[in-house]
Amino acid sequence: MPVPRRVLLYWLLLLLPTLAAGGGALWLLQREQARIDAQAAAATAARRTAIEARARLIVENIELFMGDVQNGLSESLRAVPMEAPDRYLDDWERNNPLIQTTFRTDAQRRLIRPRNDPSNTPIRASLEAWLAARNQKTELARAPAAETADEASLRRDVTSNVAVVQSARSAVQDVASARKRQEATAEMSVVEPSGWVPWRDGRGLHLLGWRAPATTPGTLVGVVVNLEEIRIRLESLLPRDGELADAFLIRDRSGAILQEKRYRATSASKSDEIENTVVIPIAGPLLPGWEVVGVATETTGPGAGGRGFLILGGLLVSTFMAAILAGGGLLLRQARESAAEAERKTSFVANVSHEFKTPLTTIRLYAELLSQKRVKNASQADDYLRVIGQETERLTRLVNNALDFSRLEQGRKHFNPVPVDLTAEINRILDVHTPRVSECQLQLIRHLPDQPLPAVVDRDALEQIVLNLVDNACKYAAEGGELTVSLEVRNPGARLRVADRGPGIPPEHRERIFDKFHRVDDNLTADKSGAGLGLSIARQLARGLGGDLRHEPRPDGGSVFVLDLP
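Predicted structure:
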């Protein structure tokens, strides 16, 4: 099977099971997340039920508390002596923190108490507005906001529970109160009217208790409840510790949270803007517009993290799959590169064998002709010996390239830099190889400095680089008829250019020609022989010297190899 198809098969064998395993893991994660969500929903429902039951209990306790407050204040109102009421009312205000102020009117229902001074102006304005409404026989208190069906249902449930306790308590208090009233008003034949009125104006809610004394017809005596003190005392009716410690708050009709320090979960002003809330209003005659809100936004237990389990699990599975695919991809890439490397080495062995075989065959042929004295004259013998010498030099170059390549690949190439005159050294190398250049029908043109150019380089490595560049020009650019070698001073270092007028190198091969085993024409039957190592070795040697070797296209055709030396 060809290598590309085999690599594709291996990739599919890795990819398909990985995707199947990852898909199965994600499916299991989704099922587990659904189970966790179901548990969370059940926990939320249970928490809501618990909060609703606790909210009902809180409302019942608040209404019982307010009933006790009203009954107690009503008893004190009935005990006010109308012969000298102000002294009694002053002492009552000072000693009872539940009283904001007391009030009293004359027979014409004009406000006598509280006294008309700047500190009492707001409360006097509210009381005068209430008296005006009472005198005009209008509605004494504004009706609370219309209840929804759910609120009405909750109201009936709470009211029915409170009614049982309240009626029993009121019955006991009524018996005691009737006895006291019977003793205090034995001579009175008319029961004094009294009651409680929630009154709301621009300054907020006011809870008023009043009494119309029978001894002074037309007058009223009453009390205004201190709702701030009521709020403080209602604080004790909310849970103080445990899981539901911060789940409840008390709001008035405007949505203001009356327990701001206790409740920090939300700042919303309407219950329908809060998720998972239970709202139970307090009895209208007691605290109209006030309500108890239970909030179940913080669910503990399974599923408290929402979709976090699925997201985290998905990330872990995706990371695991990516790691498998990345590792498999690296292994397959390594396998493909190894296969390509093996193929290049096979091609290299074949090319090197072919390269070695050609000069060896020529040497053997001419050596046999000379040994068998099958030469016509001395001139022909000299030609045979010259060919044997040339093929021997060619074979030597091939062996040196193979040895240099082996040393460079294994990292065993050692350089011996020594001070040299680059101008003289380049001239020497070119003089040695001038006969080969001439045989290739190339004109060698030198552009070298007249003065010495000192440098520290490895002589053998420099000669090997120049030899490979000259040999490369003789093989592939002989038809250009020109080989130009120039040396120029750089700061720092020097630059050697070897330029020809050959066919040039296609753009897609200009960088790959420095890869080992790469040849533009990689067939054994190619016109030009070679193993594809010369330029690769030359670049590695140049970099080993601290410089570099690169290719540039020559204007008007040809190639230029640029060697930079430190």
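Summary: Residues 138-147, 183-190, 263-273 have pLDDT under 50 and may be disordered.
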